[in-house]
Please model this.
Amino acid sequence: MTDPVQTPIGVEPIGAEPIGAEPIGVAVLGMGNVGAEVVRILTDNAADIQARVGAPVVVRGVAVRDLTVPREGVDPALLTDDAAALVTRADIDIVVELIGGIDLPRTLIRQALEAGKSVVTANKALMAAHSGELSDAAARNRVDLYFEAAVAGAIPVIRPLTQSLAGDSVNRVAGIVNGTTNYILSEMAETGADYSDVLAEAGRLGYAEADPTADVEGYDAASKAAILASIAFHSRVTADDVYREGITKITPADLAAAAKFDCTVKLLAICERLNDGGTESISARVYPALIPLEHPLATVNGAFNAVVVESENAGRLMFYGQGAGGAPTAAAVMGDLVMAARNRVYSGRGPLESTYASLPIASIDDVQTRYYVAMKVADRPGVLAQVAGEFALNGVSIAAMRQEGAGDEARLTIVTHRAADRAQSETVAALEQMDTVIKVSSVLRMEGTNE
Ligand code: HSE
Model:
């Protein structure tokens, strides 16, 4: 074990001779799907991991809530229900946090970092809320804090942003970062089924949790957007800074209407650097949006995730793969674990939070968006002119329009050009007050086009 006090971390560059081949002790907190896979991979691949790290990487303790539950593949002698004692134990170098939630893992990670342990976590909600204090604690104690698995499961996106693109300037990160909602929207688009029916099916197949709120209301994606925006723009962005709408109001009629505009609907997490006359800010937002069928994200279906990064010199990069599941998420955890272990052996240290830019967060009101508005209208002469007039009054230009049905069943769908979101939403509010508009049945944004 390398003692971070006796051997100042960061003194020797990575690539120097290993300080010793003392085993690296690992504590795993939480034995759900991901924890079990991490232990399995560490066991199955022990020889390769030792060769890559320069020392054996050994699980020395596994913290679980209930010691009576049998844990296949884990030596019972390693199990403990005292996570607090485990994370500060002298034979532990790296703590892998896979408990979930916020308060308990926050305390345990703080204790581990203060005790000089490096930490690997998959906890997006925690990192989206408290990355600042945890990163500060890691910096003070000269240890690593890695969280690749917190965003988009197996897909490498944190390391590309923090390391591969460290010399470039990222302008936009947009993606599908929630598999549950992507499964639901893909199925609705393909089968024409209702949201609630597809949600129930997703639950039966194990894609949706018993309480699907975090996924379907966009909280999970908002946490991931906060993490992505923070690292992409070197600023501290928390989940509360992310504008958020979920998918619960999407109807089969929206998906059918989207198809008629050669689009589909996806729940997107969008992180953008805005520039208003030289003044920069960050927009971080999560909402279901129409995207053109030819857009790279439109073909990402089922429970898959994908993230598109646009940067100044690298141009557009796309990352695609499995965003959830035991083994895929464990693969991302293992990448972090091997890096943290190597850093211990070679007295190196990975990057921590970088917030030097400190860009302010833009209000959704000021973001340029495109709207899709579906409404039931009275089908008589002059109605279209009145509706179009309301858009014009708010300075919003109409890009496309369709009418279907007639009489009481007339349904009007309008897609606008870009305008400030405030102008778009004020137009919708005014439409809702018009006598000739029976009901504004759906309002979505459109992304992936520059019109
Ligand atoms: N619940 C998430 C999803 C996976 O559906 O993609 C974990 O972040």
